[in-house]
């Protein structure tokens, strides 16, 4: 057998020999009590998945920013207050989990990751989003539940490629018309002080207070429109009047 491609040490002590496993593709170190990561991590240049969630990291180690193939990174439930500028080197990153940290500002380094597809920022301390957010053109899923938004971030109206948007457990009392988000397929707005469901496109699944009634009414409306179109189509295919038939037979 060759060297392992995937290794899980979650909840266990980390042996010094780990950093010699240069061929690793996946490494899971969740809940190992880590307070810092040794510089030797940078030697694992083939890593595509790295799980460091549920530890005691107060900052992102510089060595982590030197993993050129890293695509999936779990940093949730640590003590992070920000990301270093060098984080923008992770140009292969596709999915990033940062939930349950202490982020009060959106990390600027993320704006330099245009191919990031999924960003999990739930249960932090965010109250606003940067105007440059649309530069993240690859973003398809954005989780912002459990933050401190008191208004719907207007910049989200320019995120036309978003498919999933989660704003649960914030303080948003009013949502704008979101029909312009043509790619959106799921909007979660539960536990916000809104009085009625947000206005969204017909393809959007809603999760929140009043969402079930809203979607049932929408379904009835769509079915009524479909029946109407079918009836109009049937009327258009009925037999032509006699004079036309006589002309055709003549």
From TrEMBL:
Gene Ontology, cellular component aspect: cytoplasm
PROSITE patterns reported in the protein's UniProt record: LRR (PS51450)
Disease resistance R13L4/SHOC-2-like LRR domain sequence ranges: 23-98
Organism taxonomic ancestry: Eukaryota, Metazoa, Chordata, Craniata, Vertebrata
Superkingdom of this protein's organism: Eukaryota
Entries under Pfam families matching the protein: LRR_14
Keyword Nuclease: no
Protein name (Swiss-Prot/TrEMBL): Leucine rich repeat containing 10B
UniProt-annotated stretches for the region Disordered: 220-250
UniProtKB keywords: Leucine-rich repeat, Repeat
């Amino acid at each position: 057998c060759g060297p392992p491609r995937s290794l899980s040490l979650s909840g266990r002590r980390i042996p010094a020999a780990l950093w010699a496993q240069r061929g690793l593709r996946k490494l899971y170190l969740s809940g190992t009590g880590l307070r810092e990561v040794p510089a030797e991590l940078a030697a694992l240049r083939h890593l595509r998945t790295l799980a460091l969630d549920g530890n005691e990291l107060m900052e992102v180690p510089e060595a982590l920013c030197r993993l050129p193939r890293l695509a999936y990174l779990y940093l949730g439930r640590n003590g992070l207050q920000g990301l270093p500028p060098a984080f923008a080197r992770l140009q292969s990153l596709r999915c990033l989990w940062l939930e349950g940290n202490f982020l009060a500002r959106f990390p600027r380094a993320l704006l330099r990751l245009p191919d990031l597809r999924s960003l999990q920022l739930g249960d932090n301390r965010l109250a606003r989003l940067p105007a440059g957010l649309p530069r993240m053109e690859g973003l398809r899923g954005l989780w912002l539940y459990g933050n401190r938004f008191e208004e719907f971030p207007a910049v989200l109206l320019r995120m036309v490629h978003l498919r999933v948007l989660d704003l649960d457990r914030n303080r948003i009392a009013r949502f704008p018309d979101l029909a312009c988000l043509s790619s959106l397929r799921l909007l979660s707005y539960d536990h916000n002080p809104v009085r009625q469901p947000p206005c969204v496109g017909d393809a959007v699944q809603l999760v929140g207070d009043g969402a079930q009634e809203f979607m049932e009414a929408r379904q009835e409306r769509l079915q009524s429109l479909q029946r109407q179109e079918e009836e109009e189509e049937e009327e258009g295919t009925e037999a032509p009047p006699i004079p036309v038939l006589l002309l055709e037979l003549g």
